[in-house]
């Protein structure tokens, strides 16, 4: 039986993915990664600094990411944090970013992050990555809070500055990253251009010449590949590209290739790329958020019968295929989770935006990005002879505002903005009044103490509403926001005053055709009726807390078995803090489109068994069980006929995984976290049975908290 290492639950083990992430397509880096991993995991207990040094475009950051996400590194260190520094940096913001990563609290709000970082690192074996550090002062500023404890902690640095590495050095010598050899350059070029296909015979002599002109720089090879992949596969065209590269100095050649790639973009993709250029260096962008921002800003055109979300994903995939954007994280099922814009491409975008004085055309709209030089009494538009009425503003999710006092007056002058992503700001109680004039908003995500839906009910163009709040009040006014596509509120109750529910269900003019995702709702079984869900005919993703069974007159009657308790078109359902009855399970199993089911904090009445021997989830591909308090789990080989991924976390009472999962031919991964040894052993038994059936692609990952 194959040995499966037990690793901390923060690990993201390597899996088969649909999109290769940026570190998985590297060529010639395996030996370098192994050498540096040995240094990081070395026996020396003193704090050490591992420097990766090399010229721009040589792949320092990509190599560091490959090492940072290696399963042996994840298992070796108690906490890890990645910090992109660059030439211009804000020390406080960098420390806040480190603090978020080492605590897992993404809404942390502290006045003194430096002291907090030191306290949270003290006594732990930590790994801090400082990517692209350029100056001595930056090193001194950042390292003053990293405790020098004798437990094998490490700081890994990437830099172009050879002299700086000697200043930072403690025990290990700097690691000089060489350029790729000619044969490695050609291998990488083929990987990126042909995507698994073999190189045509007519290009096998000219291809290595093109690769050689890239002087062993992975970034330049990747950019050239993006251009060549869209050219006819003719030797003469490839020779033209080789000549073009050779006629420029390396840095100039890189910028020339980026400019060429940009010029080849369709007009609708250019604002999408420039928008990404305004994120901080090395920033991992959540794909789900990015697509919503693009849609709200109307960067994404309507294409045939495709949904806007599908079109925007197609746009992002196009930028990835052109090698201007890289996938940095994937979900368990292989879908893109996070992406990054490559550093030289980002520098190009910033230069382009500044040259245009932060202005650009989006369709028929003339837009200006809100930027650091703007103030609450902003008058710059007057210098262009542009009236306020004709100029729209783009509030980029990472635009810099020092505090709320500056934010609200600025917004008062920029009323045409469409996106406000303010989850990193804790807004005071005056936010509701300040937002009254922002009637063009299509995306709003806020972090506030108190939220009432009536304060945003005038935002009739709103597509996405995200709220993090301690006190949330929802009224029927929410159902009047007909353009809503996504509602993401930490938890809101659906409650009805006398007569409201009947009025809502009987009304013919309240139907939210556009709503795709909704959560987290807290409601009773009595309210989970077809008449209610029919108001959201296209709902695909639902997060729900069933807080009571309420006064259901036929709850104990067998007729409940035929009741449609959930929207019929659901593809993704998350249930939390719920008593799971046979009736609820039966209703879930009837969802013909359901592919993802996540159960968290789930309880059972009476005997703590979950018997699914007579239940079939016909199209389910992903099942996650978190704190599901069952003792015995019974399944047949027909319960999950198409399941691909099974994730079990903190199910402390569960004794074992049903061995019938070995008979599910589509199963690719079982991931077990913080469960009993017997649960892990049953997963390994399933793996053994799979191997006996010659299913060698199946994986088991067992992780400890």
UniProtKB/TrEMBL annotation:
Domain NB-ARC: 30-198
SUPFAM superfamilies: L domain-like (SSF52058), P-loop containing nucleoside triphosphate hydrolases (SSF52540)
Gene Ontology CC terms: membrane
Domain Disease resistance protein winged helix: 278-348
InterPro entries per UniProt: Apaf_helical, Disease_R_plants, LRR_dom_sf, NB-ARC, P-loop_NTPase, WH-like_DNA-bd_sf, WHD_DRP
Membrane topology, from the record: Peripheral membrane protein
Keyword terms of this UniProt record: ATP-binding, Coiled coil, Leucine-rich repeat, Membrane, Nucleotide-binding, Plant defense, Repeat
GO terms of molecular function: ADP binding; ATP binding
Keyword 4Fe-4S: no
Compartmental location: Membrane
PANTHER family: DISEASE RESISTANCE PROTEIN RP, NB-ARC DOMAIN CONTAINING PROTEIN, EXPRESSED
The family this protein is said to belong to: Belongs to the disease resistance NB-LRR family.
Protein name per its UniProtKB record: Uncharacterized protein
Organism placement in taxonomy: Eukaryota, Viridiplantae, Streptophyta, Embryophyta, Tracheophyta
């Amino acid at each position: 039986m194959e040995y499966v290492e037990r690793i901390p639950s923060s690990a993201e083990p390597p899996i088969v993915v649909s999109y290769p992430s940026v570190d998985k397509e590297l060529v010639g880096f395996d030996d370098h990664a192994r050498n540096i991993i040995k240094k990081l995991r070395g026996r020396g207990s003193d704090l050490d600094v591992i420097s990766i040094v090399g010229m721009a475009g040589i792949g320092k950051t990509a190599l560091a990411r490959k090492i940072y996400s290696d399963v042996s590194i994840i298992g070796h260190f108690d906490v890890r944090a990645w910090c992109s520094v660059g030439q211009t940096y804000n020390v406080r913001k960098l420390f806040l970013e480190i603090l978020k990563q080492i605590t897992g609290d993404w809404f942390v709000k502290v006045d003194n992050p430096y002291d907090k970082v030191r306290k949270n690192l003290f006594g732990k074996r930590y790994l801090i990555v400082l990517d692209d550090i350029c100056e001595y002062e930056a090193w001194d500023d950042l390292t003053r809070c990293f405790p020098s404890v004798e437990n094998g902690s490490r700081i890994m640095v990437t830099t172009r500055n050879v002299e700086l590495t000697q200043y930072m050095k403690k025990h290990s010598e700097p690691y000089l990253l060489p350029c790729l050899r000619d044969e490695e350059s050609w291998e990488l070029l083929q990987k990126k251009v042909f995507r698994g296909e073999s190189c045509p015979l007519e290009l096998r002599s000219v291809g290595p010449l093109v690769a050689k002109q890239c002087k062993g720089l992975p970034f330049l090879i990747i950019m050239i590949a993006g251009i060549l992949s869209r050219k006819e596969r003719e030797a003469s065209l490839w020779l033209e590209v080789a000549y073009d590269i050779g006629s420029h100095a390396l840095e100039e050649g890189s910028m020339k290739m980026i400019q060429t790639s940009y010029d080849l973009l369709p007009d609708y993709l250019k604002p999408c790329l420039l928008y990404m250029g305004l994120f901080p260096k090395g920033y991992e962008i959540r794909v789900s958020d990015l697509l919503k921002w693009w849609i709200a800003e109307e960067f994404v055109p309507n294409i045939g019968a495709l949904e806007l979300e599908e079109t925007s994903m197609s746009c992002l995939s196009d930028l990835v295929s052109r090698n201007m954007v890289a996938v940095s994280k994937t979900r368990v099922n292989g879908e893109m989770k996070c992406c990054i814009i490559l550093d030289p491409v980002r520098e190009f975008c910033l230069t382009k935006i500044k040259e245009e004085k932060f202005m650009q055309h989006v369709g028929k709209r003339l837009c200006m990005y809100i930027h650091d030089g703007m103030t609450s009494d902003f008058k710059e538009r007057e210098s262009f002879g542009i009236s306020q009425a004709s100029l729209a503003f783009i509030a980029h999710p990472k635009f810099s505002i020092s505090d709320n006092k500056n934010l609200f007056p600025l917004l008062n002058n920029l009323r045409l903005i469409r996106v406000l992503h303010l989850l990193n700001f804790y807004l005071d109680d005056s936010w509701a009044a300040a937002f009254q004039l922002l009637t063009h908003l299509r995306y709003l995500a806020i972090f506030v103490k108190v939220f009432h839906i009536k304060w945003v009910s005038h935002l009739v163009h709103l597509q996405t509403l995200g709220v993090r709040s301690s006190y949330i009040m929802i009224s029927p006014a929410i159902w009047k926001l007909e353009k809503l596509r996504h509602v993401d509120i930490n938890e809101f109750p659906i409650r009805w005053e006398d007569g409201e529910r009947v009025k809502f269900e009987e009304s013919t003019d309240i139907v939210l055709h556009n709503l795709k995702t909704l959560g987290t709702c807290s409601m009773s079984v009595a309210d989970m009726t077809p008449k209610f869900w029919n108001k959201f005919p296209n709902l695909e993703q639902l997060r729900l807390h069933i807080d009571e069974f309420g006064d259901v007159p036929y709850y104990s009657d067998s007729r409940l078995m035929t009741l449609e308790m959930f929207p019929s078109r659901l593809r993704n359902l998350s249930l939390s803090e719920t008593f799971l009855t046979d009736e609820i399970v039966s209703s879930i199993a009837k969802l013909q489109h359901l592919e993802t089911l996540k159960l968290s904090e789930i309880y059972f009445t009476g005997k703590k068994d979950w018997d699914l021997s007579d239940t079939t989830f016909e199209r389910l591909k992903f099942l996650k069980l978190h704190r599901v308090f069952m003792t015995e789990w019974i399944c047949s080989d027909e319960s999950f006929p198409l399941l691909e991924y099974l994730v079990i976390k903190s199910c402390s009472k569960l004794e074992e995984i049903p061995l019938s999962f070995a008979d599910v031919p589509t199963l690719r991964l079982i991931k077990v976290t913080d469960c009993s040894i017997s649960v892990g052993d049953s997963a390994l038994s399933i793996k053994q049975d799979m191997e006996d059936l010659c299913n060698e692609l199946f994986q088991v990952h067992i992780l400890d908290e």
